[in-house]
Write a structure and sequence with these properties.
This protein is of the alpha/beta class and 352 residues long. Helices cover 28% and strands 22% of the residues. The strands form 2 sheets. Strands 6-7-8-3-9-10-12-11 form an 8-stranded mixed β-sheet, sandwiched between helices. The structure holds iron/sulfur cluster. Iron/sulfur cluster binds next to loops.
């Protein structure tokens, strides 16, 4: 883990252009997301469909991700983190906002590209999925699964393809002879290694790991996390690590962005954020991490569930669950503001 930050000292909701001109640090960032929204309309039943509500799954999300580092996107189920990651990869079309991607020094705004324009860029952005059991086709051999992206993009064939697959299997701790076997012959951890090999064979710049270790046993989680870290160093990878398990994030990420009800509510370098959380939601998430010492009681309980993104409460979306709620929280939406260098939070407790 490095002590560098992904996050600039500027307000992260500033327009991209002024932000970069001011800081002149855009080339350091592989990815800069600005004002990203993914809103989904809900229609009435019946013959005449009428839009009755909008789900704000991702709402005005902005952050930067520095090359070679790992940003953890965390929150409870339903907070919008997976939808945000998928929108960044353009598996979903954004409603609004910009996704500036700089794989080879050139800046491309992914948000406004058509599918055909996106196709060559897909080799530079890959995803590792949560469930190693359902994300691998049981009818394909491991060799075909890992080599498939190269075949689809017409990048390799014949003995060159075989060599690349064998090398990639070695890199993820499997054996070249495993190429002939089918996924069912492997354990959960080995299957996740196959998924990692498939994602990395294209030599991507950006890898989104969506709950990549949450389906694995704890001992296997540690092995896969170590593997991801080694590969990051070897291949100069940049990770967006989507997770709900903060103990994993603590050991994996350089910086963290906490999401609640589609918005980022706190950001900061990992150690700072864990040692000194600012937002009541972050405090509650961190206090819920199991502690091996039974005498240490940190539990700050939060009642209820993540706010329904189609019926968000007025003011701060977290206010019905917040133990520190006070009067402005019920009708004024807090902005994400900079509290100190590299630390931002959206909470009225810190308003100037
Ligand atoms: Fe709690 Fe108010 Fe801060 Fe929201 S703005 S997190 S309700 S204190």
């Amino acid at each position: 883990m490095t002590d560098q930050s992904y996050l600039t000292t500027k307000r992260i909701d500033e327009p991209a252009s002024s932000h970069w001109e001011a800081g002149n640090d855009a080339p350091d960032f592989l990815l800069s997301v600005r004002g990203l929204c993914k809103h989904l309309p809900i229609f009435s039943h019946g013959f005449i469909k009428k839009q009755v509500a909008t789900v704000k799954a991702v709402d005005n999300v902005s952050f930067d991700l520095r090359r070679g580092e790992t940003l953890g996107l965390v929150g409870e189920s339903g907070s919008g983190k997976t939808t945000c990651a998928r929108t960044i990869l353009r598996a979903l079309k954004p409603t609004r906002g910009d996704i500036f991607f700089r794989p080879n020094g050139n800046e491309i705004n992914l948000a406004h590209l058509h599918e055909q324009e996106l196709k060559p860029l897909r080799t530079k952005m890959q995803m590792i999925f949560q469930d190693p059991f359902s994300s691998l086709n049981p009818r394909m051999t491991v060799g075909s699964i890992v080599g498939e992206p190269l075949v689809i993009h017409h990048l390799s064939k014949g003995s060159e393809l075989e060599d690349k697959v064998a090398n990639m299997l070695r890199k993820v701790g499997l054996k070249p002879e495993h190429r002939q076997r089918y996924p069912h012959a492997f354990s959960g951890g080995q299957r996740q290694r196959i998924g990692i090999a498939r994602a990395l064979i294209m030599q991507p710049s950006l890898v989104v790991a969506d709950e990549a270790v949450s389906a694995l046993d704890v001992s296997v989680q540690a092995q896969v996390i170590n593997l991801l870290k080694d590969l990051q160093e070897d291949l100069n990878l940049t990770y967006l690590f989507v997770a709900h398990d903060l103990s994993v994030v603590r050991h994996t990420c350089d910086c963290v962005a906490v999401m609640y009800a589609g918005k980022i509510v706190e950001t900061g370098p990992t150690l700072d954020l864990f040692n000194n959380p600012k937002h009541p939601y972050t405090k509650a998430l961190i206090s819920a991490i199991p502690n091996p010492d039974p005498d240490i009681k940190l539990d700050i309980s939060i009642d209820g569930e993540v706010a329904d993104p189609s019926k968000l409460p007025p003011g701060c979306s977290f206010h019905p669950r917040c133990p520190e709620c006070f009067s402005p929280c019920r009708n004024e939406t807090p902005e994400l503001i900079e509290l100190e260098k590299n630390r931002q939070a959206a909470c009225h407790l810190y308003r100037p």
